[in-house]
Amino acid sequence: MALLVFAMIIVGWRLYGRYRESTASLPDSMSVAGNCTLWFVGSSSIHRWTSLDRDMTPWAVENRGINGAMLTDILPRFTNIKAKEGRPRALILYVGENDIANDVPVRTVMRQLASLFDLRDRLLPDVPVLLLSAKPSPGRLGFLGEQRIFNAAAQQFLLHMRAAHYADITTPLFVGGAMGDNYQPDGVHMNARGYRIWAEVVRKRLRDILPPDVTRACAP
């Protein structure tokens, strides 16, 4: 009898976990007012960008990163985007690094990325997506080759997507062929200097991809 009760508890807990996952939304779903809002969506490298407001001012930003997330974590949450959350002027996306570090094949990551763009087309049609390259990390040097394959595949993929753009955050992180002093002690996440580099790249690419009247109004 005790074993049966225990089994029922385990099954119930798993079903509850699946329900929570199916109804969860992206973090920071409180809509920021105005037409100059950027959504930053991705894994812990976005989630831990605590200076995002300051680094991207005067843009209004929503940090919708999920600590430790892979695409399989982001996709169901993206599915649950509601109309009341509004539409960002652009969506800045950082995905793929954790997937690769967990030995997910690049071809699988690309299929999941395509699914994310399908959701964008359905839920946020014509909202530009700026995909950041998978960054090199001193703590993940063994995955650098796979990251390069992913970055090359992503660039080619984006050429065939509507309102889809690429931002190279990889090159600026190298100084004289070596990774600069841009990382936290864990050797994976960015420090303040690293995030300032990211912000500079994002700002420049937004000027490239958004209409001039938008960037003049939002970030003069």
UniProtKB/TrEMBL annotation:
It comes from Sphingobium psychrophilum. The lineage of its organism: Bacteria, Pseudomonadati, Pseudomonadota, Alphaproteobacteria, Sphingomonadales. Residues 44-197 form the SGNH hydrolase-type esterase domain. This is Lysophospholipase. Coiled coil: none annotated. InterPro entries: SGNH_hydro, SGNH_hydro_sf. Pfam families: Lipase_GDSL_2. One of its GO terms (molecular function) is hydrolase activity, acting on ester bonds.
